[in-house]
Amino acid sequence: MSEQKSGDAYFITIYIYGKKYEVPAGLTIMKSMEYSGYRLTRGCGCRGGVCGACSSIYRIKDNPKWHIGLACQTTAEDGMYVMQLPYVPAYRAMYDVNVTQCTDETILSLYPNLKRCMGCNTCTNSCPVGINVLGYVSALLRGDFETARHLSMECIMCGMCAARCPAELAPMNMAMMVRRLVGKKTQVNTAQFSERLKNIRAGKWTDEIHKYMGMDKVALQPIYKELQSSSKRVDV
Amino acid sequence: MAYPAMMMPSVQKANATRQARFQKAHPELTVEEKAKLLQDFHPDFNVKVKTPLRVGANEGDLAPMELAKLIEAPSRISPGEVNLDKPDYCTDILVIGTGGAGLSAAITAKARGANVLIATKLRSGDSNTIMAEGGIAAATDPDDSPAIHYVDTIIGGRGTNVVDLVEILVTEAPFILEWLCSLGVNFDRRADGSLFNHRPGGHSRRRSHSIMDLTGLEIMRVLSDEARNQEIPILEFSPAVELIMDDKGQCAGAVLKNLDNGKLLVVKSKVVIMATGGLGRIHPLGFPTSNHYGATADGIVMGYRTGAKLIYIESVQFHPTGTAWPEQLLGLLISEALRAQGAQVINCEGEMFAFNLETRDALAAAIIRECNARGKGVVTPAGIVGAWLDTPLIDMIHGPGTFERRFAGIYTRFMGYGINPKEEPILVYPTQHYQNGGMVITPKGETTVPNLYAAGEVSGGVHGQNRLGANSLLDIFVFGRRAGEAAAEHLSSVKQGKPTLEHLNAYNKALEKVGIATDVRSPMILPDYRFEKALTKITHMEAQ
Predict the structure, then answer these.
(1) ipTM of the complex
(2) pTM for this one?
């Protein structure tokens, strides 16, 4: 691709919901839509690639292949046909994080259509942040919840996997539940951490804090200096 | 795509000088040097871009021009177009906002038996919280304590913090981690099972707890999921446009606007918890922002009209390391955790010019000085100037694979533009990141207006005039939960009067009285980026 000169001399042609617009080269899909006069409500959120609100489907002229990308992260290309898909009516099961057990039976009873997965990999190909969706769905099928947790960690809950799944699975919602249930089981307080909570409850630092509360910035500065010098310089 | 040719000589200088800089550090600023640097180069100290408010509870206090314009403007609605006698929803507690503060308040209040309704501007979960990369502060290590956390927070806040709030913040911090873990948040842990943490700028100890560089995302996913499991109703795409008061001067609900059909909705409630977040999208001082699309100071504007007292609204935090290239990512935050892991900040010649872990205000000022007054920035084809954040050092210090593992989100985004942060530096420039001030709150989250609570970025005081990294992710849960709890307990003593929007008329009269005539209507709700405005530029005025 040629060097970007957004705002400068040259423009590209894109088709937003099929309508043709000329926009400066180098903009994201989102900024191209705004440059074309769209004031976004649905289909726009954090503008930083993590909220999952701006998933878009696009295709480049003369090429039949569909792509899915985040409008805020994907650079518009010449000849791009694009639409946003900001909502999917995906199924989600209710559960109680304090009661529900993370077992094969739980997953299959709450999400029975998990068994219908045919391994087509469309989910993985649809993920705008490059998650191995089929990998974690397969892990769920074999009861390997730790792998499912790990593989789905970057999920932004946009629902594109569910939108494209021919078996109508809602992978992101299954993974969401499993991550929480695994977390619930594995995020255990260490003895040292429990001790810390106990000490705070017992008011171990209350007097010291109250002493500092009576001191101004100038009086605290030497204490801060001392604390800084007693800490390690580079984190390990 | 990689870096454009005009930036390559400087990339090569950064690469060539890396080995010599490895394991070295720039000296820290002395107290005097830091004070002078801030005075000369930090946007907060540039009085030319601030203006005193002419009406309301903070009359005479300075505010950034862009915020003052919104505060000193009439409402977008007139009382006559709203029928308060026919509310669309009645509830105990209305929570406005679905970031960390709003959702933790809602979940906590619901657990206390209150009826809760949530309204939010965009999709549920849309917030600044979801974008938080670095981590959440809590004194958990054996060599750390809430008292040390207290000292760091006060010094970071230039001694201007509301000390009662800070005491609560640092004391309750470890309990917040325990609470989040109990909801199934997957914090990074060490092999021995202890919580992994790192040391952000201004902190004396390692105490920022993270989930890769997706800390906010993981926490928000869990809280949104829990709110659904608790069946708390959420009105999405329905921002509040004004608060409703009663004839006793108490808050009594809000008028929402359904963004899909433009219809105004009346929500009657005994208590409102305002958790609308910050203001980056009003682009104070012309800076780019790391904030989400809906961060437009709405809560400040609505609250101020009802008489809520504000604190430190003149004080805006600029995160030193916003993305400066590629232009598509302009303003996007580069977590402080990268500096905590050893990434140095260097100029176009490959020279260090500041210690990695200076507080945000000082490092932001140092980068502004280096790029402007000293002319040692790296110029991009878009005309933006930035400094290098030397990311390849991270793998050199901690071993290959560290960057990809710890900073998966940043890695993926830059690789998408052909920039490999494991092998070449990334370009940064300060970006508007946080509103230090906001509505005055008590330790229970009460504002100065009866039955109006606030939590999170829309409130002010706990961070003073400069927030330390990892303290906001903490703040929102400490005070979100407190507001939810206190509001639920307060319900039984609420005696409501007759609902009214008379405060809007009174506010308009106050504006007229001081001769303010403006076409602006507020709150802003969403910024307008249409047409030419889609082409972001940095327009800030430099100090001096």
Answers:
(1) 0.95
(2) 0.94
